[in-house]
Design brief:
The structure holds three protein chains of three kinds. In chain A, 74% of the residues lie in helices and 0% in strands. In chain A, helix 1 runs antiparallel to helix 2 and helix 2 runs parallel beside helix 5. By secondary structure, chain C is an alpha/beta fold. Chain C has a single domain, classed as P-loop containing nucleotide triphosphate hydrolases (Rossmann fold, 3-Layer(aba) Sandwich), CATH 3.40.50. In chain C, 40% of the residues lie in helices and 22% in strands. Classes of the chains: A mainly alpha, B mainly alpha, C alpha/beta.
């Protein structure tokens, strides 16, 4: 639960505290935590995946930032501006900090424990079923999509080539995946009812997750602190770098 | 208060609870696949959201959308690094609107022919033209001080024309007047989605999203638009198309589902046209 | 006191279907008895299971005529979670019964009792009992999504048992199992009847299993009961083959021996068993 709050706080601070300080702090904290948790290397693909977005941010904003006139240089029709570059860098830092904090959360939190915690705190059996079942359903559906795609490819449809061909290759893929997924809804509904899913009252929780007073206090502190930080930067003329 | 709780409970039946994870998975898998194959600003990543919305109601639809985004962002191993979390708000709005369309029976099949086909199509085209004209004349697009380039107007006209023709074709070929209303619903949803997304994109991501549509954003800025308006402009051009296509897909799915499947959903009775055939229903063994 | 699960003139039509899937079925299931159901494909066997557990029409809609009662109370008057504790249903497709929320087989089996809000100690006790009854103790910490077909079916069976239902309905439970597994399930079912006194309704293609554990057998064809009676009599009835049901091994051997003109005796029957 603490990790979830950390992730939320990371997001709030990264985006809420304008300027450099917020995202920089988050970035440093995240990288340090990842290093101590030993997952720094596994964060690499997450960082790389933000590359297209980062490139786009940098290019579009540096060159085309509205109402910016402090050009760095002028190369033909292109005039990148300092204002644009600054804004771009800040946005990049925000995005990377947020993305990495989300990645850290994803890499270090066992899903089952999190679901149990959420259920205990009021998400309810239906909420935890939806989230847990969705997490399991995504790889399954992806697998089924791959199977259908392979079968189509064996029959001559292709997913490379020109736009029209790709489109034609895609259409017969959507149908079977969708209907296959929907077909099990009826049976699963019956199965859930047959296992007393709709019984009233609180569900018995078998897992016990230790939660110390320190963790609880720490969570509240983080949450309030981050919201306060955002409020301060928004309200006061104090401008952090 | 009791009435509200009952309204909420009515939308979240066991069947809906079972459908939601499936819809979330469809959102993520199709959204990822279609995007990487077509490389167009057509995501189809809200197909599950709209489906849940129109069979179950606004709240399940919104929940499906929000959860899809959060799970895609935060869950391990699913498209690492996709930066879609903050757009959960938009997804929630899309799902909520789909629920409203569901209540209004927009997604119901309306088999018809002849004049009864022409009238809805005419109305739908009129609405599309109206919306396009409205977009044509909004200050952001036409005020030279704001400076959107002229090609934007051409683009709007082209899109409007293409949309009208596609809708008409669809309705006539399938002899289903419902297509007209679905098109309008999709377009409206797309416009609202664009309006909701623009500030998120502008504030959070500096106005770009890392996908191909950033070219449009760049071009709009080149024409002089500021960060927010560039995002809004891009959204208004691509979102209505994506949401209309998605809505049509949902419409086709619903048409292909048996009435037995739909009947037990909260909004099922609004989806089943009188005298519907039981295509797909088996008699079991 | 009319105990037992009783169907009187039960007819059922799926929502939106034009034909009746079950026609005027009379059936009686008493605690401690095993009733087998056989019939060709599409004869309504699975639908019968759904009707007997109240899932049809309770959860999936459709129209039920006639009476389906448990100890004198109509099933339609009971809530789904109450029914779940009285009648446990094992579906044909074990994979769709998984809750997909459990990380281990143990938690999967505990899903039902946890839903009921039973105290944790009782949940654990029930789960272990169910695991032992189906012989899956070593699998308790495995991932339920990664089991073989047969194992999955046994886990589903254990999950149903954990609810301690008074009546157990199984729709082709041995379809994914090899002969050893089939034998195992048959023995487990016998044990269950003895230990808990549950009444079992067993839909099976493998008539050998029914010959072994069923007290009565009912034959369905096109949704109607065409034959019913004690297991030995019904399974030896020559009309079974016409209905696409293969008689148990003993019956086939007996017929072959008689057809060859040789004599048949009680000792031979014993030896074949």
């Amino acid at each position: 639960m603490t990790k979830a709050v950390l992730a939320v706080v990371g997001a709030i601070v990264a985006f809420g505290v304008r300027g450099w300080t917020g995202p920089a702090v988050v970035f440093v904290v995240v990288v340090l935590s990842a290093w101590t948790a030993g997952v720094l290397r596994r964060m690499a693909p997450f960082a790389l995946a933000t590359l297209p977005l980062v490139v786009s941010i940098l290019v579009v904003n540096t060159f085309l930032y509205p109402n910016a006139h402090d050009a760095i240089a002028t190369v033909g029709p292109f005039s990148p501006t300092w204002t644009g570059a600054t804004a771009a860098a800040q946005a990049t830092l925000r995005v990377v900090a947020f993305g990495l904090s989300a990645a850290l959360f994803a890499l270090t939190t066992p899903v089952d424990d999190l679901l149990v915690e959420l259920e205990r705190r009021g998400l309810g059996r239906r909420g935890s079923f939806v989230v847990g079942s969705a997490l399991g359903a995504v790889p399954r559906t992806l697998e089924r999509a791959r199977e259908v795609a392979d079968a189509q490819r064996a029959r001559g449809m292709d997913t490379e080539g020109g736009l029209w061909r790709r489109f034609r290759g895609l259409v017969p893929l959507i149908g079977p995946v969708l209907f296959g997924a929907l077909a099990e809804v009826e049976e699963r509904t019956m199965a859930l009812e047959a296992r007393a899913f709709t019984a009233p009252g609180r569900r018995t929780i078998l897992r016990s997750l230790p939660d110390s007073g320190w963790q609880r206090a720490g969570r509240w502190l983080l949450l309030i602190g981050s919201l306060a930080a955002v409020a301060v930067t928004l309200a006061t003329p104090v401008r952090l770098p | 208060m009791g009435l509200l709780k009952r309204w909420i409970a009515r939308q979240f039946t066991t069947r809906v609870i079972v459908l939601m994870p499936v819809a979330i998975a469809i959102n993520i898998v199709l959204g990822y696949t279609v995007q990487s194959v077509l490389k167009l600003p057509i995501y189809v990543d809200s197909i599950g959201t709209i489906l849940v919305g129109c069979v179950a109601g606004p709240l399940p639809g919104a929940a499906t959308g929000i959860l899809s985004n959060l799970i895609w962002q935060y869950a391990p191993g699913i498209g690492p690094g996709s930066q879609i979390g903050p757009f959960a708000v938009t997804a929630g709005v899309i799902g909520f609107m789909a629920g409203i369309w569901g209540y209004l029976g927009v997604f119901r099949s309306r088999p018809a022919s002849g004049l009864r086909l022409i009238v809805p199509v005419a109305i739908a085209i009129a609405i599309i033209v109206l919306l396009a004209a409205r977009m044509y004349t909004i200050p952001q697009y036409s005020d030279p001080g704001m400076g959107y380039p002229g090609w934007v107007n051409v683009a709007i006209v082209a899109i409007g024309a293409a949309a009208s023709i596609s809708v008409a074709l669809f309705v006539f070929l399938r002899r289903d007047a419902g297509g007209a209303w679905v098109a309008v619903a999709g377009a409206v949803t797309g416009i609202v989605a664009a309006i909701v997304s623009a500030p998120i994109a502008a504030v959070v991501y500096g106005g770009v999203t890392g996908s191909g549509t950033d070219v449009i954003v760049a071009a709009l800025r080149q024409g002089g638009a500021d960060v927010y308006n560039a995002s809004l402009g891009q959204g208004l051009l691509s979102d209505p198309i994506d949401k209309t296509i998605t809505s049509f897909l949902v419409f086709l799915i619903l048409a292909g589902a048996s009435s037995r499947f739909l009947a037990r959903f909260p909004l099922g009775d609004r989806l089943i046209s009188p005298g519907a055939s039981d295509a797909g229903a088996t008699d079991g063994n | 006191m009319n105990a037992g699960l009783v169907l009187v003139g039960a007819s059922y039509r799926y929502a939106g279907a034009s034909k009746l899937t079950l026609r005027s079925v009379d059936l009686r299931l008493d605690p401690g008895r095993v009733v087998g159901v056989v019939g060709p494909n599409e004869s309504g066997k699975s639908t019968l299971c759904l009707v007997v557990t109240g899932l049809a029409p309770g959860v999936i809609g459709g129209r039920l005529q006639g009476s389906v009662g448990l100890d004198g109370v109509e099933l339609t008057a009971m809530r789904p979670h109450e029914l779940a504790q009285q009648c446990g249903l094992l579906f044909q497709n074990a994979a769709s019964q998984l809750s997909n929320m459990a990380a281990t087989v143990f938690e999967e089996i505990a899903f039902g009792p946890c839903n009921l809000g039973l105290p944790a100690a009782e949940v654990v006790e029930r789960v272990w009992w169910a695991l032992q009854t189906v012989g899956l103790e070593e699998l308790a910490s495995r991932d339920p999504a990664r089991l073989s077909g047969g194992q999955g079916q046994l886990v589903a069976l254990a999950s149903v048992l954990a609810l301690r239902p008074r009546y157990l309905l199984l729709d082709e439970p041995t379809s994914e199992l090899d002969p050893a597994g089939t034998e195992f399930v048959a023995a487990a079912l016998e044990r269950i009847v003895q230990e808990t006194g549950a009444g079992i309704l067993l839909v099976e293609h493998k008539t050998d299993v029914l010959a072994r554990i069923a007290d009565e057998v009912v034959v369905l064809d096109h949704g109607a009961v065409v034959l019913s009676g004690s297991a030995a009599v019904v399974l030896a009835d020559p009309r079974l083959a016409q209905l696409g049901v293969e008689p148990p091994g003993r019956v086939r051997v007996e017929r072959a021996v008689r057809a060859a003109g040789l004599g048949w005796s009680a000792e031979l029957a014993e030896a074949v068993e």
